[in-house]
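Fold this sequence, please.
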Amino acid sequence: MKVLLIDDHPLILSALKSVILGLGDNVTVTGVSNANAARDTLKASPNFDLVLLDLQLGDTNGFDLLAEMRTAYPALPVVVISASDRTSDVIRSIDMGAMGFVPKRSSNEVLFEALQQVMSGGVYVPPMSMGSDFSPAPAPEPAPPLRSVGMQAQQGGFQTTPHLASLGLTPRQTDVLALLLQGQPNKLIARELGLSVETVKDHVAAVLRALSVSSRTQAVLAVSQMLQNNGGFSAWRPGQR
């Protein structure tokens, strides 16, 4: 596995590099400290398997670089590694196409789990993204729909989130959900499954209703949370009913 690390703090870059190298013997890591170096590295060698991106870079905003990479390298998984654990940053990152979001205060074990989930085709979000923000805010923020699952569980005294099997999805809706979790747009989902775009839209709408969410991003976050609490992404594969 070939990994590109992008972080402008030398100590953090070195620490992340050591952690990633611990994933296995066949792992190679390239570290760069700014967006320009990242662009040059990807142009010279675009065959990376994974990118770990800090949101705070000296020469550009990390979100802007994330948008660039999703456009230029749509098949390259990007995981955001950030000092922030604000819900708004998690949502924005996933909405822009990141396959994961790992706060820098996470343990090495959490980082391993996140990377394994992403490389298995899943999306990783930190558990706290389903609850309230930990960072101070000038005023309370209304809870968005994606947080309702976690908040209702807490308020109701439940300790677990629903399992995907309890959603009652049809086999075809399960296939659509699997591709939706990979960030695929409706046109590509239709091509992959041999369906019309209108049929895919109907299946996506049914999936959103089953999850009680109103957008694809909320669906990705909600399902990622369910998978983390029910055995991880490896416990659920496309085609399993």
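Residues 197-211 form the longest helix (15 residues). The longest strand covers residues 2-6.
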